[in-house]
Fold:
Amino acid sequence: MALSSADTDLESLPRLPEPPVADLSFLDKVVAATPGVPRLEMCIQCGTCGGSCPSAADMEHTPRQIFAMIRAGMSDEVLRSNTPWFCVACYYCMVRCPQEVHIPDVMYTLKSLAIRAGLYENAAGPHLSQTFSGYVEKYGRSFEFGLATRHYLRHHPISMRGMAPLGLGMLTKDRLTFTPVRIKGLKGLKAILARARELEEAAR
Structure:
């Protein structure tokens, strides 16, 4: 059968790109991986979180946008976003949220998922998070001098000289030490962390 001119014109048009495949189970995955009851599904997209966030100006997406993207199943876009890494966990957003969504807890979950999936554009945030966690697991608390030194040597070596006056000031005021200090009851903390890892593995 001969094709009409309309059919021929349609075939000559360039093909549209395939739409991204949405992971509609992503919301359930994020909720399940967040401790407690994050109330993420209760978000009404009011934008109070973004308006309250001191780091919002540096975020690629506001928390409100991230939550909408989670609902839409845009898992790759969410986990590649810098938004969770700029969350300073001040909890101001959660205090002001009319739906009491546990926003900082969700951000912690997204960082963990991004590291696990290897879906992050800038490694500075994940490396800082992993170094911090390593010190807590080894000594029971953070070691600021070691944390800052590793971070700047690995990601901002040229800027390290400019941080010397701040470091010197902290040293003179006993706010910084050259050696880490172990907490009392470290054995108990390690047992708690080991149990937490077991629960996390069981929840996957």
Summary: The domain at 20-121 is CATH 1.10.1060.10 (Fumarate Reductase Iron-sulfur Protein; Chain B, domain 2). The CA atoms of residues 79 and 114 lie 5 Å apart. The chain has a mean pLDDT of 87. The longest helix spans residues 186-203.
